[in-house]
Amino acid sequence: TKQASPCTVTVMGATGSIGGSTLDVLARHPERYRIHALTARKSREQLEVLCRLHRPSLAVIESEVDARWLREQLSSANVDTEVRSGEAALIEVAEASEVDVVMAAIVGAAGLLPTLAAVRAGKRVLLANKEALVMSGGLFMEAVDTHRALLLPIDSEHNAIYQCLPTEHRQGLSHHGVTQLLLTASGGPFLGWKAEQLASVTPDQACAHPNWSMGRKISVDSATLMNKGLELIEACWLFNANPDQVQVVVHPQSVIHSMAAYSDGSVIAQMGNPDMRTPIAYGLAWPERIDAGVEALDLFQVARLDFQAPDEEAFPCLRLARDAMKSGGTAPVVLNAANEVAVEAFLAGRMPFGGIANLVQDVLEGASVVSAGNLDIILEEDARARRLAHQYLARHDQGAGL
Ligand code: NAD
Ligand code: MG
Description:
The chain is an alpha/beta fold and 402 residues long. The protein has helices at residues 17-27, 44-54, 64-76, 87-95, 112-120, 130-146, 156-164, 195-198, 203-207, 216-224, 226-239, 277-285, 299-302, 317-327, 331-347, 354-366, 375-397, and strands at 7-12, 33-40, 58-61, 82-85, 101-104, 124-127, 150-153, 178-185, 246-250, 256-262, 267-271. Helix 4 (87-95) packs parallel to helix 5 (112-120), helix 6 packs antiparallel against helix 15 and helix 15 (331-347) packs parallel to helix 17. Bound molecules: nicotinamide-adenine-dinucleotide and magnesium ion. GO terms for molecular function: 1-deoxy-D-xylulose-5-phosphate reductoisomerase activity; isomerase activity; manganese ion binding; NADPH binding.
């Protein structure tokens, strides 16, 4: 069906992996979508290219130095995109009244405030930024209800589960006869490895994912299985589930993107090629379906689907995340903050792969959990956990083990 006027979209994190896939889908449907704003942190050259290509009304970048550079480039290329800088500008393009849809694809805690701003403005929010939900779950979902935002999960597993549940699933899983959510995991690049083998893994090895091409932070998270841990927490908030209702299933082919099990024995799965443009197109067009540029699934080429239980001994991050969710309050905030610091340190060559889980565990043990009652508390505990993580890291630099 044709829409009266095009739908207006802001893409936050436009220069990232999800941002790029989003722009690819949008460009396939110029009659359906208009781009209001594109945002990025530092990659000004890339943002310039995107502005020339997609002609958004606005572009937002972190520093004013980069904004000035971008303004000059765009004006000499006769592109009339207005360029702004800073967090206030980021929040403005998330809540602007002319915007219908916000793609939340900033990585990490930095995405929390702008994503929440989009929710509070009642937008259709396409949520890729799982860290925002992990940090503020209760508050975030409450804001979705209060402001009548439409929250559509883009993380492929959650998008799959969303497709496997009845539309009105927010009344609770048991109400609809759902007994379990089966969260599939590829297992990452080190599936089957033991702790000793994992010790000397390099950042480039960790970022070479067998099935998905993604940003470096989530790639490391996939390698440690912290990504699955964050996703378990994400699933609990999105689908009003308790941690024991979410079972992680290792499925190396990444063809089934997740499943819902029902009390009558039915298990409904969503399948497709591992290409983020599928969930992105789903979120953009819901409840309609549009072409995503994704190749049709060739089951004969897939040939087989394998399943196994995760190895939580070699990959303790999954257990740490589940325990943090069970502890509740700010425990997931601490988990996420410590993990962000740890992943950055690992990528910078400051500590070994196995140090990530150890650092997260140490910070969780060193921090006290409080109720995540409001945003100030969440941001405070996030900052506190980061300071603690940096203290442990500094000790590690001076020779103490992690
Ligand atoms: P990426 O590193 O490729 O891109 C991150 C984007 O966020 C970039 O545009 C960057 O400029 C911007 N950004 C980073 N820090 C920022 C800051 N402090 N302020 C403002 N902007 C900032 O990451 P990605 O792989 O596209 O992942 C984005 C989010 O989507 C993450 O939360 C990730 O967990 C989630 N996700 C990604 C995939 C995937 O396939 N890549 C799948 C599922 C979920
Ligand atoms: Mg995922």
